[in-house]
Amino acid sequence: MALHRLFQLSSLLGSAVRVTLRRNIGLSAVLFNKAKDLDPVQKLFLDKIREYNSKSKAVAGGVVDAGPAYQKNLSEEMTKLQRLYGGGDLTKFPQFSFPGEPEEDLLLEALV
């Protein structure tokens, strides 16, 4: 029984070690790749990602590379939505008000 548990523990430990080594080897491959010169396609790809990252930080949550046509279309659509849904802040959940007595009062009166 103890020998069986020892084999189970060793197999679990071995699988954990294999996963850790696989992750570390994958990470070290990325680090070694940074040390070497990248091929031109990889370098161009990384440059574009860095450029997009800097542009997205510059617009602070807006749309990157949005031209005047996009801005015009966006403002028209927002105007349509505000007209359709009664204006106000479209990012907030609407507040509903129902005339009459609340349900809780009606339930309490029924119990009395």
From TrEMBL:
The keyword Membrane applies. Coiled coil: none annotated. One of its GO terms (biological process) is proton motive force-driven ATP synthesis. InterPro entries: ATP_synth_f6_mt (IPR008387), ATP_synth_f6_sf_mt (IPR036204). Keywords: CF(0), Hydrogen ion transport, Ion transport, Membrane, Mitochondrion, Mitochondrion inner membrane, Transport. It is found in: Mitochondrion; Mitochondrion inner membrane. GO terms for cellular component: mitochondrial inner membrane; proton-transporting ATP synthase complex. GO terms for molecular function: proton transmembrane transporter activity. PANTHER family: ATP SYNTHASE COUPLING FACTOR 6, MITOCHONDRIAL, ATP SYNTHASE-COUPLING FACTOR 6, MITOCHONDRIAL. Belongs to the eukaryotic ATPase subunit F6 family. Subunit F6, of the mitochondrial membrane ATP synthase complex (F(1)F(0) ATP synthase or Complex V) that produces ATP from ADP in the presence of a proton gradient across the membrane which is generated by electron transport complexes of the respiratory chain. ATP synthase complex consist of a soluble F(1) head domain - the catalytic core - and a membrane F(1) domain - the membrane proton channel. These two domains are linked by a central stalk rotating inside the F(1) region and a stationary peripheral stalk. Component of the ATP synthase complex composed at least of ATP5F1A/subunit alpha, ATP5F1B/subunit beta, ATP5MC1/subunit c (homooctomer), MT-ATP6/subunit a, MT-ATP8/subunit 8, ATP5ME/subunit e, ATP5MF/subunit f, ATP5MG/subunit g, ATP5MK/subunit k, ATP5MJ/subunit j, ATP5F1C/subunit gamma, ATP5F1D/subunit delta, ATP5F1E/subunit epsilon, ATP5PF/subunit F6, ATP5PB/subunit b, ATP5PD/subunit d, ATP5PO/subunit OSCP. This is ATP synthase-coupling factor 6, mitochondrial. It comes from Anabarilius grahami (Kanglang fish).
